[in-house]
Amino acid sequence: MDYQLLSAAERDAIVSSHLREHLPAFGLSERAPRSWIDGSQAPMRRLFEIQLLKGAGMKACWGFSLDFVPHISGGRVRWHRTDKAAMLDVILDPRDLLQPSFLHGAARLSGEVVCVKFSKLDFRS
Predict the structure, then answer these.
(1) Which of 4, 9, 24, 45 is the most buried (most CB within 10 A)?
(2) First-to-last CA distance in the chain?
(3) What is the pLDDT of residues 9-30, one digit of tens each?
(4) Are 8 and 50 in contact (CB under 8 A)?
(5) Whole-number Å distance between alpha carbons of 91 and 101
(6) For the chain, what is the HEC assignment?
(7) What pTM value is reported for the model?
(8) Residue 1 has what pLDDT?
(9) Dihedrals phi, psi of 49, to nearest 5 degrees
(10) Backbone φ/ψ region at 63: left (φ over 0), alpha (ψ -120 to 50), beta
C-alpha cells in the first residue's frame, strides 16, 4: 500500500472545499478549519466538526453548543456563549459513517469525502 501523508494545510483545503458545497444548505457557516456553526438560535448553537484521529484518520460529528452549560478550563468555570467560543455539549457521533483518512494522498481523501451522503445527516434541531 502506498502511503502519502498530507500536510495539515492540504488536508484542510480538501475537506473544506467539499464541505463548502453542502453545509451552507443546512444553515452552517465555516468558523475555523474543520468546524462549522449555526449561531442563529442562541442560546443553542448547531455545530458540525471534522475531528482528527490517531493514524491520520478523521471523523465527522455534530451536535449542539448550549450557552447555559459551563465547562472547566484552567481550574475555573467558563462559559461558551459566543459563536467563536462554542463547543459541543450534545454530540451525535455516528460510528457507521465512512471515516476518511489523509494517509494515502489527496486523491483518495477527496474521493472519501465526496462519498459522504450529506442527505442522510440530520443537522436540524
Answers:
(1) 45
(2) 42
(3) 888 888 888 889 889 999 999 9
(4) no
(5) 21
(6) CCCECCCHHHHHHHHHHHHHHHHHHHCCEEEECCEEEECCCCCEEEEEEEEEECCCEEEEEEEEEECCCCEEECCEEECCCCCCCCCCCEEECCCCCCCCECCECHHHHHHHHHCCCHHHCCCCC
(7) 0.74
(8) 60
(9) -135, 145
(10) left
